[in-house]
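Appendix B. Extra example for self-study. Work through it before the problem class; the solution is given directly after the inputs so you can check yourself.
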Amino acid sequence: MTALEPARAETQDKAGKERTPRRPARHGRIHAARVALTAWLGRPLASFHLVLAICGLLVVLGLVMVLSASSVISQQQSYSPYTVFGKQVVFVLVGLVLFWIGLRMPLRKIRSWSPTALWVSLLMLVLVLIPGIGTQVNGTRSWFQFGPVGFQPVEVAKVALALWGAHILVVKRGLLHQYRHLLVPVVPVALVMFALIMLQPDLGGTITLGVVLIALLWFAGAQMRLFVALAGGAVAGALILALNADYRLLRVLAFLNPEEAPDSANYQAAQALYALADGGLFGKGLGQGPSKYFYLPNVHNDFIFALVGEELGFLGCALVLGLFALLAVVGMRIATRNIDPWIRMVAATLTVWLVAQAAINIGYVVGLLPVTGITLPLISAGGTSVVITLLVFGILANCARHEPESVAALRSQGPGRFGRLMRLPAPDPYQPPAKRRPARTPARPRGPGGSGSARRQHPRRSRGGTR
Amino acid sequence: MPPAGKPPDGRRPDRGWPALPGRRTPGAPRSGRPTPPRRAPWHDDDSYPDPPPPRPIRRGSDRDALPPWREALRRKARAEAAAEARPRGARSGPRAGAASARRSAPAPRHSTGTARRVSTGPRRIVRKPTGNHHVRVLVVRFLLVGALVAAGLKLIQVQGFEAEALAAKAEQQRTTTFEIPAVRGAILDRDGTKLAFSVEARMLAFQPNRMREEYAEATRNNPAEPIDFDQRTEEIARAIHEVVGDRVSEEELLAKLRKDASYVFLVGEVEPAAARDLTERYPEIIDEYRSMREYPGRSLASNIVGVANWRMDDPDVDKHNLHGLSGLEALRDKVLSGTPGREVKDTTGGSDTLVIPGSDREIEPAVDGSNLVLTIDSDLQYFLQQALADYMKRAEAEGGSAVVLDSHTGEVYALANDTSFDPTGPLDTSEMGNPAVTTPYEPGSVAKVVTALCTIQEDISEPQDVHMVAGTHQVADRTISDAWPHGTLPFTTTGIFAKSSNVGTLMLAEECGKDRFSALLEKLGLGQRTGVGLPGESPGRVPPRGQWSGSTFGNLPIGQGMSMTVLQMAAMYQAVANGGVRVPPRIVDAVVTPDGERIPEPDPKPVRVVSEDTAKTVRDMFRAVVQDGDGLNDGTGEPGSLTGYQISGKTGTAQQIDPETGSYSNSLYWVTFAGILPANDPRFVVGIMIDRPNYSGGEIEGRSAAPLFHDIASYLTQRYNIPLSKKASPVVPLIAD
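Solution. Structure tokens for the complete assembly:
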């Protein structure tokens, strides 16, 4: 891909101007690197490439760690160390197809399908609760089981809520100063989802979905007091949930007071810390972590970060943390650089979802948060999660290609090698909606004149943003 | 879609690839109505009030790119928009203003700020709740990165500062120390034949209480396949019984399996393969390592070798091991058992036995036990045991022992008792002793060799000198008579010993003197342990010289009033056979360490008892004991002779103290024999003792041990290919004419 020449020239000029007054010559190399980095980041498709790189690295790291973490449990359950890994590879392949679809599909089409996706996911959330259709695993009825592969509708619900919520909020963006427009229908739908997910019950899924909802409201520009209220509600809800189930209460108590907690309640957290500490700075080496030998429960999904720490050491952990931090930065960059309000909201929300999920997972593994069953995106073993996460990455990369500069570059310079290989269509430039009409006809009677083509349009046609 | 004919890079494609925004393309708005007027997008985007910085693409692209034919359309649309905007006034104020500011002449009242303020409608208020998008994005970015950085800081704490303490705990919970068993050394005979060795075996155990719970839990979790404790234990008992056979009955096993205990031992020595088969079928059976002692010869040399068995009396399970119970197994236990090693491994969670691959780190390697090489010849030992046991039966004796020594080195070639035990069967402690070294007896006439040695050594008398020997002899308050009544007879010195005359012996002993006699007893090792290297050895008893009463010297020369083991007796004759030098007997030849190094046992210290000439003279003199002299000149041990070989020996019959009367009995005897084979060039010394045979009225075996000596000597000459003596022993007169 070629950068836009003017942009490059501009950054270089700027850099040149900065340099001359104070930089001594010996800093030349560092400065040159900085200039090169700035120039690289200034390229129109930098965000897109960063998303691809982050996704690729996380997928590869995830596969390696899943192989390492699951070999023991696979061996025990099926006499082959590759059973879980094999499934994970299949899911990653499926996920890569979805990634490609998410990357290739025009965003306006995704947007137009988001209500359908929402309805489908709601339907699946209902169906999964019905015994016989949904399968109960470990006391949680959250799976559709198709032979050896399982499918969790909650993951689809997260994407659907993000896409559809962004769509609704963008359509309504003129009316968001009114609470009923801000909250309805997004919040009721989300609450229905929460209820359905808590019936499974799946606390982790609810929390992630809550993050998606809050991110939507935040980027829609809801007032601060709403978030204060939400925070209060979340604390109250957490308290109720914790007091409702003994195991949750134990976990919370164990988290608050690890010294006095019984061994069983604190077991996972303590084992995770042992594993991390065992790794030290450089780790024990891939495959060498002893904690996967039945010391650390769920080592291949919920607690895989502890194994990363054990086998790859602090360096490996820092790599994972760095990748997710980079994802946060790049995702936000995509959100700011785009001009289509829906893309802005979707990119920001999806990024928040992924990074927050990673942060919560890592947070409870390192002992900063109480233990909840939230997986580490792309690294934990887990079929639906990895498939949907790859789809989300695909959409995020698609959003990155819709940055105006990228649009211009792609349209002027051609799709480039990667784009050609992936047969990616050129992104559509943002078309601001045509004349808007208010949702209601103004009460004041209008004069007889005016209103040409715009009046003839049906109000529903104007949805703002991508079409 | 890539175009079919791709233009070279850097050049704008003019066909197939969508052109810059604004140009009508296949992907552009499809409606027939004209494209809306080009405006900077943020003008429309009121909910995102921070306008992105102007992008190069936007700059002037409209006008540059718009083809002339579209310019008209655009103008028309703009005019329409302006026309529409004006009547609506306040609502579209800013937009109309913006649009008109660029192109059409603005109406003054719309461009003023006051007009905006007065105007009402949704769009004005929109700004308020939406906040600043850019700030919100910044805040979120800060929060997300901050959360990750917080996790990173905590990681630095966990993996850096606290790493050592936490890792120590982690290591502690998964480290298991394994005992590496040391293989107990074997016990070999002089040719390397294994008398005892260790093999690996398994011990089966079970956890009844835990299994009760686990079966119940498995049944709860999987009601389709219930596991019934009673049924399962019955299956297990049957399976074990099939494998181990009749050692344990099924009922016994079942009782153990159903015991209310946390841990029960089921069967001890099970072959590893059979145990593996069992544990594969029934994983709840625990199989533990244990070593098993094999005694291929069973009762062969069992009184010497002893027995070792698996001990579990130590509360520390790791110390459970094979330990000797009797014999050399017990005495040389430390040498044989070696030192167990320790190995540290990581085990998987919840298990002390499943080892994490590659986690072995040996702390101390095990040092296997050393092998013990004996001087025993197992073939000879077998023969001696058989022959002795057989002879005991014929003699109807209570007991007996026999020993074969090498006449030059004092090595014990065989050491047998009438009873022996099978170490692989049930153990009876009464049979496990070794009376040949532990139980002394009064030797009787065999001890007359001491007087003979003294007589020759001190030159008191020559073998052929004639002594007038009366029927009785008074010593202090006792009257000693010969075994058969006779008047005064002219015995030669040789005859005194060959006919075993008590009176004659006492006459010679008195000439020898108490002190010299006592000194000779000590030199011959009587009253002292031989140091043969067997447990529980008795020193025998010789009254100390200072405690001798008047009649003591009337008893000692004829082998009463003192006691010795059969080994001491043979050792005494070994001095005679070895040219007057006594080499204390020994039974352990060497210790062979696991790496093959042979460490010989310390050599016994030889003792010069008499001169070589004296020894030879006595040896020759004692040949007459087995001579066939046609009645009058018969020796007492004539059945001990062996055709073709010169035999030198001495019979003995000692009275036992009757436990009922407390005095010497006339029916309870020790019948003894000591012999040297062959007398002209000694190779072996044989000692035999028979305890309480049927002395009167039975076979000859009840009165003499000489026939047994004959059998043993016969076997020895064949087994060791002992060359024949060049000349038969000369027949010498025992009673002078």
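Self-check: DSSP finds 25 helices and 23 strands in chain B. If your reasoning did not lead you there, revisit section 3.
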